[in-house]
Specification:
225 residues; two-stranded antiparallel sheet; 7 strands
Length: 225
């Protein structure tokens, strides 16, 4: 199964992506995480992406497409994968269609988490992330078990640089301008809009009941806790 998870920054994509991939045992591929790793490793790709990302814009289609192609060619993607943050432009969506067809993957299922603008701004100020494994928390609605450290590896949590208010607002603007047309592109496919202004558990239940229609077994109890 190939899943595309859409939603504006702060809509809870990271949290849902972790829940879904734990359940379906497919890898979650976040192009944002991959780019942050490239920046950290100071690769050529990282260097050219850094300034665009710092201002909340989009990295060029060619660079991101190439990075994605390399990732989905890995053996762990053979039985499907979830994409979080890709495609973000219509050009990327067309490229993905071509790659999926060439590699005989099924048509993707599109999950769109829709959250009102005001709720996103409120959430963003309480968002924290583990700099080591990338897991995302919200200190109000989805806090770690122990104060400000990651449940998985104990690393102190941080505020992402691009979660600062001005940059976050620019990311929302970019999303509206560039990514809304991608949703229109997928409108007549296996496309599902889900209200993302609910608890992570509620949203996960909504997602699992959609995916069960595609023949996957229900998630074991406790998957979303
Ligand atoms: P994310 O973690 O998905 O919010 O991505 C963080 C940043 O990485 C975005 O604001 C973009 O600058 C860049 N980025 C991530 N995915 C893409 C993509 N598919 N196309 C272009 N830029 C991307």
């Amino acid at each position: 199964m190939v899943l595309l998870l859409f939603g504006p920054p702060g809509s809870g994509k990271g949290t849902q992506s972790r829940l879904i991939t734990n359940w379906l045992k497919i890898p979650a591929i976040s192009t944002g995480e991959m780019l942050r790793a490239e920046i950290q490793a100071q690769t050529e790709l990282g260097k050219s992406a850094q300034s665009v990302m710092a201002r909340g814009g989009l990295v060029g289609d060619d660079l991101v497409n190439k990075m994605l192609l390399g990732r989905i060619a890995q053996p762990d993607c053979q039985n499907g994968f979830l994409l979080d943050g890709y495609p973000r432009t219509v050009e990327q969506a067309e490229y993905l269609d071509q790659v999926l067809a060439e590699r005989k993957f099924p048509l993707p299922v599109i999950l769109h988490l829709d959250v009102p603008y005001a709720a996103l701004i409120a959430r963003m100020t309480s968002r924290r992330q583990c700099p080591k494994c990338g897991r995302v928390y919200n200190i109000l609605s989805n806090p770690p078990k122990h104060d400000n450290v990651c449940d998985d590896d104990g690393t102190p949590l941080v505020v992402r640089k691009d979660d600062q208010v001005e940059i976050f607002t620019e990311r929302l603007r970019t999303y509206d301008e560039m990514t809304r047309p991608v949703l229109a592109y997928y409108n007549d496919r296996h496309y599902y809009q889900i209200s993302g202004d609910r608890s992570p558990k509620y949203i996960f239940e909504a997602i699992s009941s959609i995916l069960e229609r595609y023949g996957v077994p229900p998630p074991p109890n406790g998957t979303s806790d």
